[in-house]
Amino acid sequence: MIYSFNGHIPVVHESSFVHPLAAVTGNVIIGKHCYIGPGAAIRGDWGEIILKDGVNVQENCTVHMFPGKSIVLEEGAHVGHGAVIHGANLGENCLIGMNSVIMDDAYIGAECIVGAMSFIKAETIFEKRQLIVGNPAKAIKEVSDEMIAWKTAGTRLYQQLPSDCHKSLKEVAPLREIPENRPKQEDFYKTLQEIKRKE
């Protein structure tokens, strides 16, 4: 669902995919090859939200802010299921773990990894390549080359997903029996491991 608000109409690049059960409102700009999952709410009613190329905002995430703010999710930022980004800026190729909360005027540096269910207080700044966990969250070590390679490989799958959704996602009635020729799915975890080894 795409909504205008106070004259602002969201801008979504044609290569990106916004699930019909997501809500994108107002002053929002979504770059190339972005994925917005079902249940996500990106509310640009009180300020500007910019998602640069290759960002994914997964199921049931919220991106919002206090009035008058502008926030940016830089290239390749990866926002896991159920996370809340409220008035925070995300650096390039960072990962926000599932059900984490990032508060106003916080900044997550490039290639940081935020652990699942972490709480980052308002105005907290983390420099690049930090592993961040806890409530309140703290940096516990530097992100290794191996960790960021794994993260980058996972994000590439999400950058391919918009194209796959445009090609094959459609609303259907459910089957009542399992068909004999039910297609098999690729082992994406195995694919991730192979990508990581090549890097």
Automatic annotation (TrEMBL):
Originating species: Constantimarinum furrinae
Q: Which SUPFAM superfamilies match?
A: Trimeric LpxA-like enzymes
Q: Which domain of life is it from?
A: Bacteria
User: Which protein is depicted?
Assistant: Phenylacetic acid degradation protein
- Gene3D superfamilies given in the database record: Hexapeptide repeat proteins
Q: Which InterPro entries match?
A: Hexapep, Transf_Hexapept/Carb_Anhydrase, Trimer_LpxA-like_sf
**Signal peptide positions (record):** none
Q: What is the lineage of its organism?
A: Bacteria, Pseudomonadati, Bacteroidota, Flavobacteriia, Flavobacteriales
